[in-house]
Amino acid sequence: MTSAKAAPPPVPVPMARILALQPKLRPTDLEDAVVSTEDPLLLETVCNLVRIWATARKDLPADFSERVQVKALSRQPLSFASIDMETVERDAMQVNEPFPPGSGVDASPWPTSDLFMLRPLSPPTFPPAPQRTRVDLPGRQSVGVCTSCQGAGAENCVTCAASGRQICGSCSGTRQVTCPQCGGGGTHIGVSGRYIQCRRCNTRGTIQCQNCRATGQVTCQVCAGRGTLQCEVCSGHGNLKSRWVLNVNTETAHEHEFSLADPWPAPTEQLLSDTEVLSEVIVRPADGDATISAVAPASLRSMARRVLEKVSSSASGEQRIAAYRVQIRGTYLYDVRLEYSGRPFTVLIGGLRSQVFPKSALPAKSGALQTLGRFFQKGLRALATDERPGVGSDFVKAVSVGSAHLTDTNCLLPAVAAYLRCPCSVTGEGYVLQVVEEASKGSIPGPAIPISIKLDSEVAGKLTLCASVIIGDAHRDQFPLALSLNSKLMVGRLAVTEIDGVETYIYVDRRPYDFASAGRYAAVLQGMAAAVRWLSSSKPLN
Ligand SMILES: [Zn+2]
Ligand SMILES: [Zn+2]
Ligand SMILES: [Zn+2]
Ligand SMILES: [Zn+2]
Prior knowledge:
By secondary structure, the chain is α+β, with helices and mostly antiparallel strands. The protein has 11 helices and 22 strands. The strands form 6 sheets. Strands 1, 2, 3, 12, 13, 14, 15 and 16 form an 8-stranded antiparallel sheet that branches. The model is unreliable at about 1-5 and about 365-390 (pLDDT under 50). One zinc ion binds next to loops.
């Protein structure tokens, strides 16, 4: 009874884009080879991602999140050439409609009978499902007598044979109905208990029909007594106008291919929709091949041409190819060597939502451990809301909606932003907080100071908060002055760094991640923002 039940399939935690793993790619980035990385930020980010992924898998040991380690990390771009082809089928159809007197008739001839020449194609929309539309075609109109009513505009009412009167339904035309008092017998039992003669019908057993006022006929319900009905075909006008409409059937055919420098067993079909469109071009059939060069980097061009040929050959004879949408899509694919309790295993991570796919067998729960695990999980549930130690449920939630960085396991910066009531966005390396001034009542606060906070883990496990603001161009002769200003700053210090080949003043504060409660770190950022305002208003560096 205990272990026979199959485990339910794991429900992955949906992930917002993690910029550290999936930075903005350019098409030429897709030409990169496999590279391995020891960047501690990436290793930490990947490890936390695997921990979060593990929370959704009940088939892993209970202490998995605590004990899993990243041993090696490499990545390569996964690229797709994805081509949609819009085809259009057209046919002209004659329709008849009522012709009210005085309305216009466009009898002008068509300049051509080629339906694709007659009306230009609409801009392509590449509908995911076949789409049928109908548009009016002016010209070639004519007017004729309605064949249904022979021009009369009206037809005799069949129900009353054009008389306008119908036999009464209550008395069937007899003008009399059964007396309700005596039920037709002429006598009934009176209050004395004896039979008495019916006074309602004077013992006749019937009374006059009230429905038809004893005429046996009522007004015809169908024609309201007129005896005729308006012709439905011509709406009573007697004439019909014949005009032309164009039926348009638009369909989209799709083909794609993928490319990987090293053939890792990635579920590419699953990843296609989770990749970013790096370049896109809409082309007409005439200029298809030439524009592929514009959209695809050199190494992907032959793949793109192959896909284009494949999709083109799927068009049938009646269809015209309206346009192609050529897309180059891509994502970084990560090969993650992990270790749990001395056992190595590998997962692949890819896509904008950082999907995790096991590449080798995962560490399994042993029978004995499973029982123990359950016992411990019960204990843990009493202590905390999350079932797995090492990953807080608030952290999982915050990462999955893109409000916390994967290395910020305490959700420190979102808490700081809440404390400062300022906007906070997740970047590849950490966050940017727009720190606003604490203005006294009635005064207008100055502009928000954007402070970027990098989560630096030079040594794995020792995370550093590195807050910085770019101040402006630096000049060598001011360096001593800048250094002397540092003694006036309550937090952080001014430094010179090169940004895009230009020497730039940067204001930096570094402190250990463990230093900070939200309140204390909020005070640090407020101090920095105040110093930046002072530097820009009193201009001690000019
Ligand atoms: Zn008619
Ligand atoms: Zn009638
Ligand atoms: Zn009666
Ligand atoms: Zn009647």
